[in-house]
């Protein structure tokens, strides 16, 4: 067998070559007996639409009922401005067309069979779990014409790319990693197994920072002294912090120092020379480190890079105790870094562009109410699914009215953080989160409107008892009685929004969404934004000025149209 770098199959290396395609079914629909023209048209339209939803041409979509079922589970109809009912009708017509034309519904019928050489090797695998973990590798290599004794790391990487392209695997990296582990183990356990050792997959993102343990002990001691100062300030020292920093903040400060030291090494300075914090806060060394870090972002500053500089400034002032003139030079450097930093990350910026379309913004704003209606329809047949819909609805509605960070949202405590205000139709809910539980050490206070209080009551009555495992005092409980993890609640929010609107929005983005919404309705009102987001006024102005520019442009273009209608006046 010969080696190749890409599969010979035009559809998928995992699909058998004799599997019919949707294009074949479309061609056969016209010849179906006793089928009215309207149904022929409906079937062909459904098959064409299914291919479009899967992002493939009809001649590249296997006409197998099992294959379609698996992949269509991952299609979010809302992303195509399609109702779920419409999607189900299209899916039903497509499946009927496949059944009427004799297409198989068995998984085994579309899977590519391994070639004889691979089949002979797999027949020697005793454990069925090991067999499953190697089958896709055998299919992929069969498509390439690669025998077991010619396999290499390139084929593992190619299989991983193919699995990702298939888009139906939850963890394609795990599938590839499992295949490597099983192959290497069987190489030692099975006589006559090809004597080829496969290397582990490269890490998705190679870390560039160097562990502090690899730096001179004197630097490690300096860092430990600084961290102890932040964690256990001397209350009698007027130069010490007013109170201990939170553990997460301390961990971040330590990492910032590690970044600065690592950047110096990456820039060419021997690691042995970085023997103390004084080396890091030297202005020339600081510029050298920051310049290397900016080189990773097209020589542009970011909020994170500016944060490293601010951290070093504090070290320079309070531990190394540089002269005031040197501190001013560092402050000037930080000021220059901040000129080109707008406080909004590019990933968030791109996701916010989805909401430039008024219909998309309307979908998001109306989603909580729509989820409540959906939950009410599901509560008798699928109570847990209905409960999760209500939980997502409440979480999204809270974020729209009170843009909390994901950690604060997931840890809302019924007794400590929530307090009812008023009663009856005018009942509201007050959220108070103490300063020591907030990232920037500023207490949060939000008075939620009546509609949120009504939704909260519905959630507490209908959903929370179903979702609560052990007794819990948290608004969003975990099964063990604690609070639902921020990552889990964020995933519920993101998946629900994608399913019902087709938008890609995570929990953290709601803080930026609040800035976008208010800037569109009340351009220039940064004071309100600074209070709502609990940020300083300069930070709010820097982060959300782009929305002001959008509003200003729209205002100007309205003036342009008015001038045209007025004959240039």
Can you describe this structure?
The chain is mainly α. The chain folds into 4 domains: 88 residues; 74 residues, no CATH class; 128 residues, no CATH class; 164 residues, Intergrase catalytic core (hpI Integrase, Chain A). It contains 23 helices and 3 strands. A 3-stranded antiparallel sheet has the order 1-2-3, covered by helices on one side. A hairpin with a 6-residue loop joins strand 1 and strand 2. Helix 13 packs antiparallel against helix 14 and helix 22 crosses helix 23. The N terminus is likely disordered.
CATH superfamily of the largest domain: Intergrase catalytic core
The side-by-side strand order for the widest beta sheet comes to 1-2-3
Q: Point out poorly predicted stretches.
A: 1-9
Distance between the terminal alpha carbons, to the nearest Å?
Answer: 79 Å
Q: Please provide the ordered H/E string of secondary-structure elements.
A: HHHHHHHHHHHHHHHHHHEEEHHHHH
CATH topology of the largest domain: hpI Integrase, Chain A
Largest sheet: 3 strands, antiparallel
Number of helices: 23
* Residues in helix, %: 55-70%
Identify the quaternary structure here. single chain
**In total, how many beta strands?**
3
> In the CATH hierarchy, what is the architecture of the largest domain at level 2?
Orthogonal Bundle
Report the mean per-residue pLDDT as an integer.
87
Q: Structural class, please?
A: mainly alpha
**Number of domain modules:** 4
Instruction: Estimate the strand proportion.
Output: under 5%
Shape from CA axes?
Answer: globular
> Can you tell me the CATH class of the largest domain?
Mainly Alpha
Whole-number radius of gyration?
A: 30 Å
């Amino acid at each position: 067998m010969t080696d190749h770098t890409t599969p010979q199959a035009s559809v998928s290396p995992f699909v058998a070559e004799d599997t019919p395609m949707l294009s074949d079914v479309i061609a056969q629909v016209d010849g179906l007996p006793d089928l009215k023209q309207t149904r022929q048209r409906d079937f062909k339209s459904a098959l064409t639409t299914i291919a479009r939803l899967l992002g493939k041409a009809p001649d590249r979509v296997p006409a197998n009922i099992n294959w379609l079922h698996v992949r269509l589970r991952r299609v979010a109809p809302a992303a195509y401005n399609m109702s779920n009912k419409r999607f189900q009708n299209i899916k039903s017509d497509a499946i009927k067309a496949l059944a009427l034309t004799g297409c198989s519904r068995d998984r085994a019928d579309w899977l590519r069979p391994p070639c004889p050489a691979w089949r002979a090797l797999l027949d020697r695998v005793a454990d069925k779990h090991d067999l499953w973990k190697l089958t896709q590798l055998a299919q992929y290599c069969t498509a390439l014409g690669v025998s077991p004794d010619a396999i290499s790391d390139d084929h593992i990487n190619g299989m991983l790319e193919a699995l990702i392209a298939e888009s139906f695997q939850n963890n394609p990296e795990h599938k590839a990693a499992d295949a490597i582990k099983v192959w290497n183990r069987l190489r030692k356990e099975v006589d006559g197994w090809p004597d080829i050792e496969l290397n582990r997959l490269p890490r998705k993102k190679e870390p560039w920072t160097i562990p502090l343990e690899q730096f001179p002990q004197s630097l490690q001691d300096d860092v430990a002294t600084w961290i102890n100062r932040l964690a256990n300030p001397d209350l009698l020292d007027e130069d010490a912090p007013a109170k201990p920093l939170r553990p997460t903040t301390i961990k971040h400060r330590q990492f910032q120092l590690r970044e600065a030291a690592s950047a110096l090494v990456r820039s060419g300075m021997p690691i042995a020379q970085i023997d103390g914090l004084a080396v890091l806060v030297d202005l020339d060394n600081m510029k050298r480190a920051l310049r290397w870090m900016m080189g990773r972002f097209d020589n542009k500053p970011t909020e994170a890079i500016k944060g490293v500089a601010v951290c070093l400034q504090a070290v320079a002032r309070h531990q190394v105790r540089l002269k005031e003139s040197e501190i001013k030079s560092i402050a000037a450097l930080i000021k220059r870094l901040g000129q080109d930093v707008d406080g909004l990350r590019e990933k968030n910026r791109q996701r916010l562009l989805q909401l430039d379309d008024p219909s998309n913004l309307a979908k998001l704003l109306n989603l909580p109410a729509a989820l409540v209606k959906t939950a009410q329809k599901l509560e008798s047949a699928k109570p847990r699914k209905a409960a999760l819909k209500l939980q997502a609805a409440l979480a999204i509605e809270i974020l729209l009215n009170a843009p909390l960070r994901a950690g604060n949202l997931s840890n809302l405590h019924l007794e400590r953080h929530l307090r009812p205000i008023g009663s009856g139709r005018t009942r509201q809910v007050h959220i108070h989160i103490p300063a020591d539980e907030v990232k920037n050490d500023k207490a949060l206070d939000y008075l939620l409107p009546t509609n949120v209080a009504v939704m909260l009551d519905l959630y507490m009555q209908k959903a929370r008892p179903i979702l609560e495992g052990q007794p819990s005092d948290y608004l969003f409980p975990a099964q063990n009685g604690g609070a639902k993890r921020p990552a889990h609640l964020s995933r519920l929010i993101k998946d629900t929004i994608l399913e019902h609107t087709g938008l890609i929005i995570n929990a953290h983005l709601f803080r930026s969404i609040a800035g976008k919404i208010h800037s569109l309705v009340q351009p220039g009102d940064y004071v309100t934004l600074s209070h709502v987001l609990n940020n300083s006024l300069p930070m709010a102005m820097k982060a959300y000025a782009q929305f002001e520019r959008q509003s200003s442009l729209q205002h100007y273009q309205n003036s342009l149209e008015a001038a045209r209608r007025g004959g240039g006046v």
